[in-house]
Amino acid sequence: GREAGVEKTALLPDLQQRVNDLDQVRFVGAGDAVIATLRRAGDHWQVEELHGYRADWDRLRALLADLAQAEVVEAKTAKPEYYDRLGVEDVSAASASGVRVEFSEASGVPAVIIGKRAQGRDGRYARVQGATASALLDRDLDLPAAREDWLEKTIVDIADAEVVEFDIRHADGERIVARKASADDENFVLQDIPAGRTVRSAWAVDAPAGSLSALNLEAVAPASEIDWSEAVRFGLVTADGLRLDVELVQRAPAEGGVAAEGQEAAAEHWIRLQAGLYQTAVDSAVEATGDANIDKGADKGAEEAADAVADAAGRAAEINRRVAGWAYRIPTYKYDSMSKRMADLLQETDESAP
Question: What is the mean pLDDT of residues 189-210?
């Protein structure tokens, strides 16, 4: 369309036609340092520099759609000495502030340098690699600066309301088990409370059940790179019979871990996990379907039980397909929640209470 007498033009006219055929996108920052190379692999995209772990497709798709639809609303400087004001200088410069987005040679789509956000108006500056004129685009772009930002963040998401039992086992043998007396109960009942002790609060006991809700990664590595021998083991079971087993370790920070002045870099917390079926759920479904002489009502119950187990089995397979072989660095508060000790959940019995 026309705006103030300027014919809007597409920034990357070739990208619109080819966007669905792309198989590689690379992001390069200052000093020509590669931020991330994303490659298509079958039904998903991978971050090549992070062991080929799954990329955040929603984020990539949104960026590619924006780049394909981006229009130039105003031509900007063609003088190289002014490029840095807009952040569109060549990223080979150590001080460059922009990011170069590159496509595979086969795509025929030229690389583009995405510069600074416009001040006092919408849009972002850009310059197609090899062109002299820079441009103001009609939109901003979500272009993360860190490699990890391109990872698909969700590890698992098990709502605490689904959970009916959890257990924590420490390397020294201490064990915590808590379960709901029935699936409809609000709270978990802590098992094997020692004499003279009482539960600190219902909330303290219930909290670990939510450990796997919206569990997101901070970093990823092959599980084989980590020593799991002293791992804390956290497990939970859902009402439909899905079982998750998590191993947790605390590690010294990686080389080059950043710490505030005068502080040691914080320990890192890593997990690996595996999904399966809780044996009781399978047994009850088998039992229910095994007896051919039960009446119609029971038949229906048996079918539902078998369906629930099939659903849980499907969920377990889907989780394992994504997490098998991987270790994840997770936020400290999530680690703390999955590695509670009995002492964290109990207090002395108040003898003076009536």
Answer: 96
